[in-house]
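Chain A, query sequence.
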Amino acid sequence: MNALTIRLKIKYPHLSISIIEKIYLKELNKKLKNIQIIHIQCVPNNFDARLNCIQRTYVYFFINKNYNIAKMNEAAKIFLGEHDFSNFCKKRKNNTSFIRTIHKFEIKNIDQNFYYFKIKGTSFLYNQIRHMVAALFLVGKGQLDEQDIKTMLENNSIKNKNYKIADECGLLLYSFKFSDINFNFNVDNKIFLNVMNKYIQTTILVVSLCYPLKIKKPSENFFENINDETKEILQ
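Chain A, predicted structure.
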């Protein structure tokens, strides 16, 4: 999870916090060209966007390359709950525990050959999602099965994994929850959805370039339907 923390000296001590937030939101967006900030909120000095996050939801967009989606969905359920994900991450020296909890792991269809994984958990290890997705791709190809996934979860001493990490194309952090912090989005819902729609469209185009395939052209209402998918992803 990447996070940017900005510490600012309050220029307007006579104004309310809500007004100050709106002022800084406007000023920051004036300076940014390719990034749009849709919400800003004051937090305590000891707040840490990474350490205080208690729930994260990621999505991973991909193109169906003749995968067995049904088998992939069934195999994804094996990841649900608390497990040792030693075999599904890139280990770092400072890692002391590989136990993580997955609350949701499912595959959704957007249009024809376009799909996405939706993964919700308390926290994730380095490259954990890309490792899990890579294993599920092999399940979809028939090169791994559900028992292989179970074995890798139950046996943390496996040295040679049967897969390569999935590409970073398509992986996005979409929602999160923090302890003791309630982010009240005052932004207009239409503006928020518009930003997310453009984000999804750009991601799908990038994924298409990363994985060139002879696939059917998306339907005419493909991007019109993205709005509903955005609402679904953010639930």
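The mean pLDDT is 78. The CA atoms of residues 36 and 195 lie 8 Å apart.
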